[in-house]
Amino acid sequence: MHLHRFIGSFDLSKNEVEIINPENINQIKGVLRMKKGDVIILSNGKGSSAEVTIDSISPDKIVCIVNKTPTRNTLTETGRKVDLYLAILKKENFELAVQKAVECGVSTITPVITERTIKTGLNIARLEKIILEASEQCGQDIVPTLSPILKFSDALTNSSNAGEKIIFHLVEKPYTPNKKAKNISIFIGPEGGFTDKEISLAEKSGYKVASLGPLTLRGETAAIIATYRVVQGI
After folding, report:
1. Which of 49, 54, 55, 159 has its CA 20 to 30 A from that of 215?
2. Do 14 and 103 lie in a common domain?
3. Does residue 166 contact residue 185 with C-beta atoms inside 8 Å?
4. Alpha carbon of 176 to those of 31, 119, 156, 166, 170: distances in Å?
5. CATH code, domain carrying 97
6. C-alpha distances in angstroms, 216 versus 97, 169, 174, 211?
7. DSSP states of the chain as a string?
8. Partners of 63 in the beta sheet?
9. What digits encode the pLDDT tens for the residues 39-77?
10. Helix 124-138 and helix 91-104: axis angle, to 10°?
């Protein structure tokens, strides 16, 4: 049976847990029309979750009783930590890429300004909400982090400690997974792709240049496919 999941600042160490976030309350009461006795999952967004039963519902609070001892889960079953450095795309495209990357198991998302980036403004609050809702939808107990916007060169420096570093570009060499790597940074370019100068700089920074195939993919499509393949090691 599918149980609805809600992520918030819940203290799962107690037998009784209160839900006071208005959005959660509205979702449970108004949208899902849940009632006393219904079972849901609460997560603190940091790796712990618990199955609980709704005990009482009031206009400003929902009280739940913990059924099962809280469990800790990793972000992905593979145990890989994948950091996505994504060139800022048009609003709808960037939001789609972020949503699906979360569902694919990404750990962090860093918006990047490249030479061919056209739009640089982002609605951070909306993106964080998209990340939270995507985490709830796909059953993750660790909410991926949305990092501050970085320029391309700064992003390369920021990711220098990764065990494996890949920049995806339209080249002949296809991507082959390193199944032993556990901490991986990947770069996805904007509309028009990375410039030769950026690719050269990435290679000097220890990045492997790899392709997702012979077709020219949109930025958001490349982000989704790359994240899934790297997380799963396929």
Report:
1. 159
2. no
3. yes
4. 44, 32, 21, 10, 14
5. 3.40.1280.10
6. 16, 9, 13, 10
7. ----EEESS--TTSSEEEE--HHHHHIIIIIS---TT-EEEEE-SBSEEEEEEEEEEETTEEEEEE-S--EE--SSTT--EEEEEEE---HHHHHHHHHHHHHHT-SEEEEEE-TT-------HHHHHHHHHHHHHHHT-SBPPEEPPPEEHHHHHHHTTT-SEEEEE-S-SSB----TT--EEEEEE--TT---HHHHHHHHHTTPEEEBS-SS---HHHHHHHHHHHHHHT-
8. 18, 56
9. 999 988 888 888 999 999 999 999 999 997 666 554 455
10. 30
Q: Are 187 and 114 in contact (CB under 8 A)?
A: no
Q: How many domains does the chain have?
A: 2
Range of 60's domain?
A: 5-72
Check: CB of residue 25 under 8 Å from CB of residue 8: no
* Same domain flag for 121 and 178: yes
pLDDT tens digits, 73-106: 544 556 789 999 999 999 999 999 999 999 999 9
What amino acid is encoded at 166 in this protein? I
